[in-house]
Specification:
Length: 353
Amino acid sequence: MRKALITGITGQDGAYLAKFLLGKGYEVYGTYRRISSPNFWRLQYLDIFHKVKLIPTDMTDQSSMQNALYISLPDEVYHLAAQSFVESSFQTPHSTGEITGLSVVAILENMKHIKPDAKFYFAGTSELYGFSGIPKGKALTENDAFKPMSPYAVAKLYGYWITRIYRDGYGIFAANGILFNHESPLRGLEFVTRKIATSVAKIKLGLSDKIVLGNLEAQRDWGYAPEYVEAMWKILQQDMPDDYVVATGETHSVREFLESACNHVGFDYEDYLAIDKELMRPLDLPSLRGDYSKIQEACGWSPKVKFKELVELMVDEEIERWRMLLSGRTFPWDAPNYPSERGVIVRNGGNGR
Ligand code: NAP
Ligand code: F7E
């Protein structure tokens, strides 16, 4: 049975990837960090909490990463853990550098000694392009320049290049996915798509009368997360490691997302919109659109869920969740969830069990 280690298994992509890999017959290990309130709701939502093996690991603690590799001795490592919220990276630039950037070399360096034949996937991002000065609307490829515009993107730039250095310098099968925004009902509430979806649902059910947003004109290439984790896997199934853009090829503004979400439930967005300047970032990428030709040709991957369907499925799911709460039912995935009580937790290092 093939073994995979996913760092950041409690996040949106980590949870979907774990489900996908379990479906392919993998033994799945995932890292999680100790926080005051355990965060396993996504694993429970996907009904895989009992099927994955969880290893306590922090991306600022090298010995815990070493431990995770010793315990799992993986065939494939998917390094997804990160401080992934661009806005927060302006408030916590130093720790973002450590968690999102330096953790990459810590894992690769440990892999070099513990499991050099494992394949490594790094979660690169369209934020890397930043100030590229590319004409608005051009679809970005693997060959376009990176000129990051946020502490998050700079940290990812380090991760991108160190991944290439371990590939070229040490022969590790190390690949970069350059993923454009991808969303789902499992997205964190702070990201604009889920924030809009949940705000619209609350208005629909009479629980709120406002949607507070920042920059409405920013354009993003938004895809559907479950499809993007399949792209990660396909990237590691190639004969040679390489770097790939994963995107839909379309771009839409935040305003369009909001308008589409409101239209779906029969509202005019202008009746509910409030702008908060505090939500504007010191720097914000005006527009992003990706060209997925390379991954389509090499791996046979292409996006299926496009903008309108994505907006609607997110809004519908939020309405369903709020209806459940209103009817007094608890979320089925909100049960007591400390892993030693309900899941499989693996703590000891040693010889890979
Ligand atoms: P996410 O939902 O924010 O998940 C991030 C994961 O990293 C969570 O499991 C989180 O744990 C973990 N983490 C954060 N700080 C940590 C630390 N100090 N030690 C250990 N774990 C830590 O992000 P996502 O949307 O799934 O994205 C996955 C990866 O792809 C990230 O690297 C992100 O930067 C990158 N990416 C995402 C997109 C996108 O549109 N979603 C696009 C391009 C690239 P907690 O659950 O405990 O917080
Ligand atoms: O912002 C604007 C905001 O925070 C999108 C991460 O997964 O994708 C994500 O980064 C746009 C920005 O995502 C609000 O200014 C307006 O222009 O949803 P977001 P992001 O910054 O694009 C990339 C590819 C990643 O790699 C990241 O990890 O929406 N916006 N009003 C707002 N954004 C938020 N969050 N909240 C607002 O109220």
